[in-house]
Amino acid sequence: VGGPATIEVATGDVVTLMVTADVDDEVHVHGADVTTPVVAGETTEVTFTAEIPGQFEIELEDLGQLLATLVTT
After folding, report:
1. Phi then psi dihedrals of residue 40, to 5 deg
2. How far apart are CA 64 and CA 15, in angstroms?
3. Contact between residue 5 and residue 66 where contact means Cβ atoms under 8 Å apart
4. 60-73 per-residue burial string, b: 16 or more CB within 10 A, e: under 16
5. Over the stretch 18-61, which tens digit does the pLDDT of each residue have?
6. How many CA atoms lie within 13 A of 70 on its CB side?
7. 3: which DSSP letter?
8. Enclosing H/E stretch for 6
9. How far apart are CA 60 and CA 68, in angstroms?
10. pLDDT bucket at 3, cuts 50 / 70 / 90
């Protein structure tokens, strides 16, 4: 909602994303190499540790829809 967000975290932080999609797909967090299935209309929790500094896309994988940019410092 409102376009892609920018999420800033520190290296070593545990990050939890709450994702609700209107299609069945997978959330892919690049850089953390985390892929989690999502079901249309349901909220899915995606938790990972930000281990690599940089700027990475978070997207709905099959749809190719950018959800957010993760910036790890």
Report:
1. -50, 130
2. 22
3. no
4. beeeeeebbbbebe
5. 999 999 999 999 988 899 999 999 999 999 999 999 999 999 99
6. 27
7. S
8. strand 5-9
9. 10
10. confident
Both ends of the chain: CA-CA distance in Å?
Answer: 25
Please spell the DSSP secondary structure of 7-65, one letter per residue: EEE-TT-EEEEEEE-SS-EEEEETTTTEEEEE-TTSEEEEEEE--S-EEEEEEETTTTE
Q: Token digits for 66?
A: 């950018």
How far, in Å, CA of 43 to CA of 9, rounded? 22
Determine the Cα–Cα distance for residues 73 and 65; give it in Å rounded to an integer.
24
Is 1's pLDDT higher than 80?
Answer: no
pTM for the model stands at: 0.85
